Amino acid sequence: MKTMLNVALPKGRLGEKVYNMFAAAGFSCPELLEESRKLIFENEATGVRYFWVKPSDVAIYVERGAADIGVAGKDILLEYAPDVYELFDLNLGKCRMAVAAPSNFRDNPEKTLKVATKFSRIASDYYRRKGRDIDIIHLNGSIEIAPILGLSDVIVDIVETGTTLRENNLEVFETIVPISARLIANKSSFKFKSQQIERIVEQMRKSAEDMK
Fold first, then answer.
1. Is 194 exposed, middle or buried (0-12, 13-18, 19+ CB in 10 A)?
2. Which runs of consecutive H residues, i.e. helices, occur in the chain?
């Protein structure tokens, strides 16, 4: 009986694109595309078992070994620093982590900079490298409103098109790091299921090249 490889896919549009990459690489599971409330799907012929999870939880499933491999955004990997292997940049879900503020903002290095963000580790690391004294204000939603109401001077957040920033009279001042979806692996799984994982990585690389 073939050993199944457990794959954590992020729910949503990104997950559908990721699955299409797996399918194009020869690891399809037609049942996954059917209208259903199921969360786990497997194809014994290809030896792959897929399951849908919240995007921010993928790295947890992989780190803890519930999934052998999965796909997580670089923002999640930088923010939570899970103990996993990063195997491959899928070049999907491209955006950037950036510092944004009202257009009239001027930084005064003599004052502590108030930074509102969901990504406290990324923001802290970034400003530590710059030697800038900051006050992190951790928020979970509506980050853009913080500088408008005077809660913060700037925000650190993911920027894709910049539309939300412009609608709130904010603009990007600095780009911290580009973000995209990455294929990650559990360290133990990579040791004991290396052939299966490496075959998937090789096929997905070929598929990605063909899609360019």
1. exposed
2. 13-24, 58-64, 74-80, 120-130, 145-148, 163-167, 187-192, 194-211
User: From the CB of residue 84, how many other CB atoms can be counted at a distance below 10 Å?
Assistant: 24
| Residue range 4-35, pLDDT digits in tens | 999 999 998 899 999 999 999 889 998 888 87
- Beta partners for residue 41, in sequence order: 50
Would you state the structure tokens that stand for residue 163, as one six-digit string? Answer: 């539309």
Q: Encode 128-151: b = buried (16+ Cβ within 10 Å), e = exposed.
A: eeeeeebebbebeeebbebbeeee
Residue with tokens 């950037």, as numbered in its chain: 96
Single pTM value for the model = 0.91
Structure tokens at 8: 């954590």
Residue 2: both structure tokens together: 């073939």
> For residue 121, what are the CA distances in angstroms to 56, 139, 156?
15, 13, 11
CA distance 212 to 207: 9
Q: List b or e across 16-53, with b for residues whose CB sees 16 or more CB atoms inside 10 angstroms.
A: eebbebbbbbebbbeebeeeeeeeebbbeebbbbbbbb
Write out pLDDT tens, residues 167-189. Answer: 999 999 999 999 999 999 999 99
